[in-house]
Amino acid sequence: MTDEDLAAKLAETAGRLLLALRQSGTVEGKALGDAGDVTANAWLMSALSALRPADAILSEERIDDLSRLDSRRVWIVDPLDGTREYSEGRDDWAVHVALSIDGHAAVGAVALPAQGRLLRSDQPPPPVGRPDRPRLLVSRTRPPAECTQLADRLGGELVPMGSAGAKAMAVLLGQGDIYLHTGGQHQWDNAAPVAVALGAGMVATRVDGSPCTYNARETLLPDLLICPPDYEARVREALG
């Protein structure tokens, strides 16, 4: 199985497990979110250990083993991105599976299980039309002031949405046009979305334009910009 096929299969299967757990009705609320994190992470760790035993792993739900710094190939996983949305019965949550090679998000898959979607770095979705008035994807609970200011400068509008993966993929799917995040993320929050966005020909960088670098000792990777290339100059100018 290729790395691309493996990432997709893992994300898709973890998503199915999460849907089955939620639909079972055995637990609700915070307990459901906790159970989802544990269940999806256990599956992903078991499968990766069996199928890619020589590779390192960085997961949000596992103690960080810094021996990964000696590996060229590191799987970076968020078993349940958007635990709150998942536990509330919403559809804007995701599963992230990425492979970093030499610090680059080379392979990725983002599953949106409740939407029946799976996006892969090697199979970009078809291009979509873009409006003159750009739509900025923002947190539905805490939209950052920077996004409000950027929307004002671009004459755009804010589109609230849940998880980071859901917002990033909304850009590719044409549900929004710009995803700017400055509030602090970790490598597992954006490795898979960045890999998929780059595979689709999107701009996917730090806010200052530098590339996103992975498998660093510090897991914090605090800011991110994803948008179509046609929007980049306008966004950079508006950001000052």
TrEMBL record:
Transmembrane segments: none
GO biological process: 3'-phosphoadenosine 5'-phosphosulfate metabolic process; sulfate assimilation
GO MF annotations, alphabetized: 3'(2'),5'-bisphosphate nucleotidase activity; metal ion binding
Pfam families documented for this protein: Inositol_P
Residues annotated as binding Mg(2+): E60, D78, L80, D81, D189
Keyword field: Magnesium, Metal-binding
Record-given protein name: 3'(2'),5-bisphosphonucleoside 3'(2')-phosphohydrolase
